[in-house]
Amino acid sequence: MNNFWINIRPNKISEIIGQKHIIKFLNKLVEKKHITPLLLYGKPGVGKTSIAYVLCKEWKVSFSYFNATIGTKKELETHIDLSDVIIIDEIHRLNKDKQDILLPIIEKKNITIIATTTENPYFNIIPALRSRMHILELNSLNVDDIAKGLKKIVKNKIIDIKITEKLIKKIALISNGDFRYAINSLNLIKKLYGERKITESIIKNVLSSSHFYSDKKSDGHFDLLSAFHKSLRGSDIDASLYYLALLIKSGDFIGMERRIIMATYEDVGLANPNLTLRVTSALENVKKIGFPEAGIILTYIVIEICKSNKSNATVIARNNAMNLIKKRGVFEIPKHLKDGHYKNAKELGNGIGYKYPHNYGGYVKQQYMPNEIKNEKIFKKNKNDKI
User: Fold this and answer.
1) pLDDT for 343-357, tens place per residue?
2) Do residues 134 and 28 touch, judged by C-beta distance below 8 A?
3) For residue 372, what pLDDT band results from cuts at 50, 70 and 90?
């Protein structure tokens, strides 16, 4: 690690940016000198590795650093013998074999592991390893947190630059919760324009748009898709459009399309049956037009989904059918509904007595359900249904 980042990293718990929800716990670990395996989980740039370094310094223990993205199994084994604590960055990058190496280490307490991950540990860390580590989820940093950290860096002349608090806050805003990105942005501005007083136009030239992190395979992205769908279901136009904008920025058109289609069938459903046709047409037009103009089409259809009446009658009917099979089992199909077209079917009684509805004007009353469940009602009409 170069001197630049060494000078920027906090040296004490009190210097950590944000994460107020875990500061008391961290202070207690230091106060009691309780060295324990930890798994720090959160988005990039929220301070996971910095917290690991601070704890090691406050505990006054020897420690080493291993990056799971580029490190080898042999290097990992070498690090294990070097220190009291090993910091493993991006532990989710370790395959199962490498994660298994860590189990006896934690069990014997020869060395303590502090690991960091941007991925949900409940999906990406083996259960045996995860259960031996205390998981701390770090929150995204807000604009004030990042601005406070940048001001300290400028004040201490780690990045010696002439910039106002207002413009520091602008960089913090553009950084979208990623302190590392904010620091790198400030340092880049310094290298390009450090001899001048920094202006808003300089920041716009260097940082053209908000920094946006989205890993389509991460739980954070699935949270975004979930929030989008739930906002559509809840008829909140503003929230739906906000999450739509984030999804467009992420480039996940497939995930976005799936949620829009499912909201139409699952949540609007029979309350507005024709909406499915308009949604299908809109999504086809999105592919033809392309972005950024396609965003207008998506906005149009999202607003219509939100403003439409809602009915989950089809979802309830699907669940009722599946639950009926689960609780009551599978029964014999009535004889008159069985296939009667093949040779000798009539000798088995199959198809005999079936009434062809079109011979009765399109509808005729007859038993379709098996005898044992002939009185069960699966579909129940919703008050908003237009059928």
Assistant:
1) 666 666 777 778 888
2) no
3) confident
What pLDDT does residue 52 have?
93
Number of H helices, E strands in the chain: 17, 5
Query: In this structure, how many other beta carbons lie within 10 angstroms of the beta carbon of residue 372?
Result: 12
Rounded distance, CA 292 to CA 280, Å?
Answer: 19
**What's the CA gap between 245 and 186, in Å, rounded?**
26
d(CA 53, CA 55): 6
State both tokens at 168.
Answer: 């520091």
User: Tokens in use for 289?
Assistant: 């037009």
CA 110 to the chain's CA centroid? 35
Q: What pLDDT does 51 receive?
A: 93
Residue 228 to residue 263: CA distance in whole angstroms: 10
Counting beta carbons within 10 angstroms of the beta carbon of residue 206, is it exposed (0 to 12), middle (13 to 18) or buried (19 or more)? middle
Return the structure tokens found at 220. 């954070």
Task: Write down the pLDDT at residue 7.
Answer: 74
* Non-local CB neighbours of 22 within 8 Å, separated by 6+ positions: 136, 138
Per 3-state DSSP, the chain is made up of helix, strand and coil in percentages (nearest 5) of 55, 5, 35
Give the β-pairing of 134-137 and 112-117.
Answer: unpaired
Torsion of CA 79, 84, 87, 91, to 10 degrees: 70
| DSSP codes of every residue in 283-352 | HHHHHHH-TTTHHHHHHHHHHHHHHS----HHHHHHHHHHHHHHHH---PPPGGGS---STTTGGGTTTT
Inter-residue contact 85 to 111 (CB < 8 Å): yes
Classified as helix, coil or strand, 223 is helix
Report how far apart the first and last C-alpha atoms of the chain are (Å, whole number). 67
Rounded to 5°, angle at Cα 40 from 36 and 41: 150
Structure tokens at 185: 């942005």
Residues 310, 230: Cα–Cα separation, whole Å:
13
pLDDT of residue 369 exceeding 90, the answer is: no
Mean pLDDT within 150-157: 88
